[in-house]
Amino acid sequence: MKEHVPHPDLPPPITNVGVIGWLRTKLFSTWLNAGFTLLAAYLIYLTIPPLIDWAFIKADWFGDSREACTSGGACWVFVNVRFDQFMYGLYPAEEYWRINLAFGLLVLLAIPLFIERFHHKGILAAVILFIYPIVAYYLFAGGSFGLEAIDTSRWGGLTLTLVLSGVGIVASLPIGIVLALGRRSKMPIVKSVCVVFIEFWRGVPLITVLFMVSVMLPLFLPEGSHFDKLLRAMIGIVLFQSAYMAEVVRGGLAAIPKGQYEAAEALGLNYWKSIGLIILPQALKLVIPGIVNTFIALFKDTTLVLIIGLFDLLGMVQTAITDSNWLGFSIEGYIFAALIFWIFCFGMSRYSQSLERKLHTGHAR
Amino acid sequence: MSETDNATKGMSISEGVVIEINGMHKWYGEFHVLKDISLKVRKGERIVICGPSGSGKSTMIRCINRLEEHQRGQIIVDGTELTDDIKHIDQVRKEVGMVFQHFNLFPHLTVLENCCLAPIWVRKMPRKEAEEAAMKYLEKVKIPEQAKKYPGQLSGGQQQRVAIARSLCMNPSIMLFDEPTSALDPEMIKEVLDTMVQLAETGMTMLCVTHEMGFAKTVANRVIFMDGGEIIEENEPVAFFNNPQHDRTKLFLSQILTH
Ligand SMILES: Nc1ncnc2c1ncn2[C@@H]1O[C@H](COP(=O)(O)OP(=O)(O)O)[C@@H](O)[C@H]1O
Ligand SMILES: [Mg+2]
């Protein structure tokens, strides 16, 4: 009788592994690729060294006027001097602690959410969503508890960007979910209301929306009624983004097989329980990239509030570069603004990727 | 098994009837999918439903827990008539468990969470109690060691057994099976059928759509043959297989028994 001897595992050929293998397969696999590799290397050589030279080596960092900028590189002194305004807008300097406290509080509250062994995540999330905003509002706006009242027109800089996008993100997701469910509803009235709402807000540019809420809305309100400009901008952004969010969520809902609804129904779960326990957790997980994409778009879109006279981070930078003491440093200003935006957006993107990995539970079905 | 047989024989027709379908019709739009279905199922009876694809088997058993709505006739489950009344529907769904061809487990929940979900949220059972009960049923279907895994990490046969356990956790008095082994690889069919046989031995009322004729012969009290939306023939398994009355039944049996 013949016995089968299994073939032993052999190491892969040397040209496929290690540095040489990597270079060969990734950069020089064909003559064309080799050409592109060399071209890219040349472009990098042309751009990167001068950039580093300008931004770091020949740059000036400290001082308090443009006279400090003598080295011929970037003048970060400008950003340094204006840093507080970029962060806090026209908020009075002696009250900065209130903003710092509010954001510090948020970070402290959020930390346990990322700790695996912390079991009361639901309660904590509810506190962050419902109680924290009230506390933060009183800290920001003041006017009670012995805090000086600070009008929302003085809020600005990164603070305003974060407030607008934070409110936008937190409010547009639930509204978007409700709209998406409504659009898939079997009840014709609910369905058409949602369709009209979504298509209307998706059809107009955000700039128009902001103009409408800031210029037209007051015309419909009773004479003399005060309706805060920041609040109006928030409402505009939330309505606009929730329409986008609704379509993202609807994509996720459509991807859930009918069998999931049927299994939930057969077990006796009612509509809201099936949606909340079975359908949404799966649908939202599927569209995390789309949701985060919308969040990132929203974060960057908040810069448009500049046109209705609110000064977010970019708005503050733009004001600063027109200051006659600092003319000619717009590049430094814009780079700084871009860097801050990039850090936040990249952070969101990375977080969404880690969330996707964490929620991955093997193959569906 | 003989115990339940004796019990059902001793009863009069209407006594112990848990499912009663009278002259039931259903349409999908213009398409008349179920025609004048009448059926009585007594407590503890095990019924196998067979018939060619598209004959309306799934639709019929899905009407029993109102996954599908019928338009004419009557369906009474355990004394509750199925109407638009949501209370009646909830009442019936508490009594009726269902196992699907494609398992339909919830992929984002572990096996244990799949089993506990409905007891906790529908029956309002405390979590600890629900988990204990779920473990008991997972032991019955012989996969307690998989409780912490996700459905996607299990084989098809294991998933279907979890699906059976999940239904049983709601403590139903009637179980519906819609081709529970059709999506399985051959070597896994037996483990699911064994679980079903074991369940039959506990006296559970069962309606199974299946083409597993071995299962029908050993477990069923009655076999029902459907074609074109109608019940063509029903009989005890021995008589059904050895002496089919209708040509269509004969043809169908010759087709599924020869391959
Ligand atoms: N949701 C539906 N809408 C329209 N027609 C359907 C639907 N579901 C099933 N049918 C049709 O009804 C008939 C019976 O289907 P089904 O009960 O699934 O048959 P079986 O389970 O016996 O294979 C088939 O012709 C099928 O195409
Ligand atoms: Mg079927």
UniProtKB/TrEMBL annotation, chain A:
This protein's UniProt keywords: Amino-acid transport, Cell membrane, Membrane, Transmembrane, Transmembrane helix, Transport
Primary localisation category: membrane
Family (UniProt): Belongs to the binding-protein-dependent transport system permease family. HisMQ subfamily.
PANTHER family cross-referenced by the UniProt entry: INNER MEMBRANE AMINO-ACID ABC TRANSPORTER PERMEASE PROTEIN YHDY, MEMBRANE COMPONENT OF AMINO ACID ABC TRANSPORTER
Classification via SUPFAM superfamilies: MetI-like
Compartments in which it is found: Cell inner membrane; Cell membrane
InterPro entries (alphabetical): AA_ABC_transptr_permease_3TM (IPR010065), ArtM/GltK/GlnP/TcyL/YhdX-like (IPR043429), MetI-like (IPR000515), MetI-like_sf (IPR035906)
Organism: Solemya velesiana gill symbiont
Species classification: Bacteria, Pseudomonadati, Pseudomonadota, Gammaproteobacteria, sulfur-oxidizing symbionts
BP GO terms, sorted: amino acid transport
GO cellular component, one term: ATP-binding cassette (ABC) transporter complex
Signal peptide: none
GO MF entries: transmembrane transporter activity
Domain ABC transmembrane type-1: 158-352
Membrane spanning stretches: 31-52, 96-115, 122-140, 160-181, 193-221, 275-296, 303-321, 327-348
Protein's UniProt name: Amino acid ABC transporter permease
Domain of life, source organism: Bacteria
From TrEMBL, chain B:
Signal peptide bounds: none
Recorded topology in the membrane: Peripheral membrane protein
Domain of life: Bacteria
Subcellular location: Cell inner membrane
UniProt key word Lipid biosynthesis: no
Domain ABC transporter residues, every copy: 19-253
GO cellular component, one term: plasma membrane
Keyword Transport: yes
Family, per entry: Belongs to the ABC transporter superfamily.
Record protein name field: ABC transporter ATP-binding protein
Protein's organism: Solemya velesiana gill symbiont
